[in-house]
Write a sequence for this structure.
């Protein structure tokens, strides 16, 4: 792994980098240094070492185990005593206009 990082990154023309890229990559990996690649004297890219891999990847499945407590029976109806259909019909009736006997009288 990287040992000591150079205080100033090395600068190298693109042509030289192209000719020696594998050796340069090995050196950067070993030393932790950086190489600035230039084109016509202007910096265009930087070769830097990769960060070390994570030592432990947390497991997603079961990661909240012990964080949540279920206190109810999830298979039981929410409110067994409540007549949901009657409640829904009563609420729906509020939106309907009032009817009179003539509205419901059979057509002759």
């Amino acid at each position: 792994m990287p040992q000591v990082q150079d205080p100033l990154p090395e600068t190298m023309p693109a042509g030289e980098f192209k000719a020696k890229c594998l050796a340069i990559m090995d050196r950067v990996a070993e030393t932790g240094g950086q190489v600035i690649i230039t084109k016509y004297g202007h910096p265009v890219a930087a070769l830097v070492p990769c960060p070390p891999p994570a030592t432990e990847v947390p497991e997603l499945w079961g990661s909240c185990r012990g964080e949540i407590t279920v206190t109810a029976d999830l298979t039981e109806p929410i409110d067994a005593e409540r007549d949901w259909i009657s409640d829904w019909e009563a609420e729906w009736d509020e939106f309907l206009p009032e009817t009179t006997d003539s509205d419901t009288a059979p057509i002759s």
Observations:
- Residues 10-47 form a domain with the YefM-like fold fold (CATH 3.40.1620.10).
- The beta strands are 10-13, 35-39, 42-47.
